[in-house]
Amino acid sequence: MNTSLQGNGRVVILGIYVTDLTFRAGRMPLIGETIAGTAFAMGPGGKGSNQAVAAARAGAEVVFCTRIGNDAFGEIARATWAAEGITARASVVEGVSTGAAHIFVDDNTGMNAIIVASGAAGTMEAADVDAIEADIAAARVFVTQLEQPLAAARRGLEVARRHGVITVFNPAPALPLDDDIFPLCDYITPNETEATALTGVPIANADDARRAADVLLAKGVGAVIVTLGEGGALLHSASQSILVPAYHCGRVVETAGAGDGFTGGFAAALARGDDAVSALRFGCALAGISVTRPGTAPSMPTLDEVNRVLSQPAEAASPLS
């Protein structure tokens, strides 16, 4: 597998930035109840921005398109992108705040529950994509999600397809989608919950994920990747069906951002020329490191850290029968 960069591949990501407000406690409070938390942290987040940080730390040249407000959270966003070497195409919307996310983290398991308010990024339009068409045309991979309006995500996929750029669509959070969006996706990367919402197929194991993936292939997707948490990730296409086990890199501290890390790492690996299975392993290793650290964007590892994990003996990818 190619785990060293042979020149930086460009990844363009369309999505949102929010400032994460993370609370840790032993359990979720009930409605009307107040409980004591064990910790609080504030830091950069948002699916698109997290993916941009993951891809940049993995060695990709990253362009990130979003909208922010003219406020303190917007300043945190700019400082984050500058520190990571990310080229930001971030329009400032006056009178609308930069987005924020409330993240509850269970101290016992590291699992999370999240409320996202997209703020200024929630006003994005197809015109935002048109403004960065030159960036997309010069990229190897384009990535988007569904925290910003669907019209912007769709335009991004359309523009990338028109220029022959690899498209990676992370359908999160899951929304009802018209079938004509699926043929625009070279890769679609739902987790189990999102895959079930898109297909109606309940997922309890990799075989269920394969059945759900078949539904998406029938709709025109090039290849489906269903992320399965501790179960790893399934790559399923017309030509192959590969389950890559999760990489266990230490005690799970926080799972928020792991899916973003996977998608950003997968895109970075594709952009530098890795094949889909190698890119899948890279994304799984990156996510496996991220869950051992607190935060979303701050938890993303460097390329050297991911390569060290990949250099160690691990279970071979297993074809599904």
Task: State the main characteristics.
321 residues, disordered C terminus, ten-stranded mixed β-sheet, UDP-N-acetylmuramoyl-L-alanine:D-glutamate ligase, four-stranded mixed β-sheet, 33% helix
Describe this structure in words.
With 321 residues, the chain is an alpha/beta fold. The chain has one domain (10-319): Ribokinase (UDP-N-acetylmuramoyl-L-alanine:D-glutamate ligase, 3-Layer(aba) Sandwich). It contains ten helices and 14 strands. A ten-stranded mixed sheet has the order 5-4-1-8-9-10-11-12-13-14, with helices on both faces. Strands 3-2-6-7 form a four-stranded mixed sheet. The longest helix has 15 residues, at 276-290. The radius of gyration is 18 Å and the shape is globular.
- Poorly predicted sequence stretches spanning 5 or more consecutive residues: 1-7, 315-321
Biggest sheet overview: 10 strands, mixed
Instruction: Give the SSE string.
Output: EEEHEHEEEHHEHEEHHEEEHHHE
Mean pLDDT: 92
Query: Considering the protein shown, what is the CATH homologous superfamily?
Result: Ribokinase
CATH class: Alpha Beta
What is the rounded Rg? Answer: 18 Å
| Spatial strand order of the main sheet | 5-4-1-8-9-10-11-12-13-14
Percent helix, as a range, is 25-40%
- Indicate how many domains the architecture comprises: 1
Structural class designation:
alpha/beta
Function: Catalyzes the phosphorylation of ribose at O-5 in a reaction requiring ATP and magnesium. The resulting D-ribose-5-phosphate can then be used either for sythesis of nucleotides, histidine, and tryptophan, or as a component of the pentose phosphate pathway.
Subunit structure: Homodimer.
Protein name: Ribokinase
Catalytic activity: D-ribose + ATP = D-ribose 5-phosphate + ADP + H(+)
